[in-house]
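Lab channel / #folding
Pinned by the channel admin:
"Please post every new chain as: sequence first, then the C-alpha cells as a reply. Keep commentary short and put observations after the output so the thread stays searchable."

First post following the new format, from NK:
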Amino acid sequence: MMYRQSRWCTLWQFALLLFLFASSGHAEEGHAPLRFSYPVSDNPVFQHRDSYFVSLLKLALEKSGESYVLEPITLSAMSEKRSKLFLRSERYNVHWLLTSEELEQELLPVRIPLYKGLIGWRLLVISDEYRDKFSNITEPGALKALVATQGLGWPDTHILHSNGFSLRLAVDWSGLLEMVSKHNVDYLPLAVNEVWAEMPTLKAKNLIVEPNLALHYPSAYYFFVSKAQPEQARVLESGLRKAVSDGSFDALFYDNFGDDIERAKLEQRRIFRIDNPLLPVKTPLDDKQLWFNVSQTH
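Reply from TO:
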C-alpha cells in the first residue's frame, strides 16, 4: 500500500512539474518581443519613397515602450491590392496603405493618418503654354470644364470622376506626362509631397506647376495589419499617439515634407475642396491634431 501511495505521489509530482514547465513556457512566450515585418522594395526609387514610412514605423515602436523585433522583407515592386493579400496571408504583418472601406473591412487599420492628409492636397501640372488658360479660373466649374489625366486604377481617378471632373486615363507615368505635354489633356493633379521631386522631368517636357490653384480632398494613409494580429495594431496606435502628443510625429513629418509645403505656398492659392466618396466613415476627421492644415506654420 505504501509503495502504491509513493508511486502515485511520484506521478503527481511529475505531472505538477510538467504543468509548471508548460506554464513557464507560455509566460515566456507572452513576454516575448512582438514581431513586426514590413516590405522593402528592391527598387531604390521606391526605397527612397518609403523611407518616411519606415522611419515613422520605427518611431511608433520606440514610443510604444513595448519589446519588439523589426524585420524588413525584400520584395519586387507590387500594387497595394497585392500587398493586401500578402498582409492577409502574413507574408509580412504591417504595411502603409491608402485607406478605403474595402480595405478596412479586410484588415485592421491604425487610424492615424501617416501623411497628415497631405496626399489629398493636389497641385496642377500643366503645359507652360497653358498659363493664361488657368489664370482666370475662379470656381470649380471652370476647372471641371477642362480635361485632367490620372492613372488607370488610381483611387484619385474615382474621386475626381465622382466630383464631376473630366478625365482621360493613362496606364503609366510616362503616358500621363505625354498627354499633358502634347496637349491631349489640360492638367495632371499631383500631391504636394510628390510633385516637386518630379521637377527635372517636368521641365524637360516644358511642364510647370500651375501657381494659383489647388485641389483638396480628405485622404489618409494608415498602417494596416492582419486581423489576426490585433496586438500589433494596439502597439502601433499607442506609439503613434504618444509621438503625436510629444511632437515627435510632427517633427518627422515636417522634416520630410516641410520644404515641399513651403514651396507650394498653399496659403496664397485658391483652393477647391471636393468630397472623397472612398473615405471610410470612421476616419478621425474631427481630431485636428492628426491633419495638416494650411494655417499651420513650421
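NK: The chain is about 45% helix and 20% strand.
TO: also worth noting, The first helix runs from residue 2 to 30.
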